[in-house]
Amino acid sequence: MDPGGDRRGATLTRPLARANVSEVEGKYFDARIRECGEFDPFSPAGWETISRRFSEMVPLPSIPRLLDIGCGTGQSRQVYEPKTAGYVGIDLSLEALRLARSKFPSAAWELADACRLPFLDSVFDAVAFSSVLHHIPDFRPALSEALRVVRPGGFVFAFDPNLLHPAMALFRWPKSPLYISEGVSPNEAPLLPSVLHRAFVDCGLVEIRQRCQSNIPYREVAPRLINACLSLYNAADRMFEWIGLGRWFGTFVLTCGMKPASAQSE
Predict the structure, then answer these.
(1) Is the alpha carbon torsion for 22, 26, 32, 33 positive or negative?
(2) In a domain, 55, yes or no
(3) What contacts 181, CB < 8 A, 6 or more positions away?
(4) Cα separation of 42 and 51, whole Å?
(5) Which residues, at least 6 apart from 244, have a Cβ–Cβ distance to it below 8 Å?
(6) What is the Cα–Cα distance from 67 to 129, expressed in whole angstroms?
(7) Is 264 a member of any domain?
(8) CA dist., res. 160 & res. 250, Å (int)
(9) For the residues 90-108, what does the mean pLDDT come to?
């Protein structure tokens, strides 16, 4: 952190190595960024859909300070940018953060672990997990940390792959006989909406809002051979949302909760 307290200029150096989930995930995405040069799975329409749902689920006209956990190369910034002028992005991947800073030098970027946030209590108006919780086998400490750093009356938001979606259950669930590991990080697995809802409640959040969402078109997926059929998949997923099934079985599950106005961080 800069002496003046501004994390915008934080030095992007990796902390001491530790053999845990965070280190494994960070190394995976470092290697992926070095190989591919970018990580941008959704089309612009997909990002816009997530941004629209975020605006609906977080009922604040503006968000002075927002923490984006799992910002990656900065693509998720577009989800929150319309509502906040005080964006802070953190990630486990040093390579991703370097790319994010090169694209958006005016934003604040920091290397940090979701389960050990380097921020004081109650300093953010909203905390967002950008497709992160499904990378952490036990994500309860991450939610507890989000609750700690968000102000009373602030919001915690997350979007993650939905295990109830047929494609996620068949091809991205590690226990499925059709599981495809290419393009999947070592600890990644889609989540049930009920598991997320219960975790948000158990950590102390209230006024939980949740819905599933299809019609989040992908720009590319792995393995690359599947990209030849990606337009057909996106069309089918758009129809899934149109007929109403996306609300319950959509590709992603979006969850939001509020920190009680009377809450005090321990």
Answers:
(1) positive
(2) yes
(3) none
(4) 12
(5) none
(6) 9
(7) no
(8) 11
(9) 96
pLDDT confidence of residue 264? 57
Mode of pairing for the β-strands spanning 150-161 and 252-258:
antiparallel
Residue 100 falls within a domain, yes or no? Answer: yes
CA-to-CA distance for 229 and 222, rounded, in angstroms? 12
Q: What is the pLDDT of residue 221?
A: 85
The number of residues making up the chain comes to: 266
Token digits for 24? 């494994």
For every residue of 127-147, which 3-state class applies, written as one string? EEEECCHHHCCCCHHHHHHHH
Is pTM beyond 0.85? Reply is yes
Cα separation of 183 and 147, whole Å? 31
Q: For all residues of the chain together, what is the average pLDDT?
A: 91
**CATH number of the domain that residue 231 is part of:** 3.40.50.150
Cα–Cα dist 78/210, whole Å: 21
HSE-up of residue 156 (Cα within 13 Å, Cβ side): 33
Pair of tokens at residue 242: 């149109």
pLDDT at 11: 36
Closest CA to 53 of 79, 85, 72, 82: 79
Count how many domains the chain has.
1
Task: Tell me the CA distances in angstroms from 189 to 86, 160, 173, 249, 253, one per residue in order.
Answer: 31, 9, 6, 16, 13
Under 8 Å between Cβ of 129 and 104: no
Output the CA torsion sign for 115, 118, 123, 128: negative
Largest CA distance in the chain: 54
Q: Return the closest-CA partner of residue 218 out of 39, 35, 95.
A: 39
Residue type, 226: I
Residue 33 lies in a domain: yes
Q: Which residue has the tokens 């992005």?
A: 89
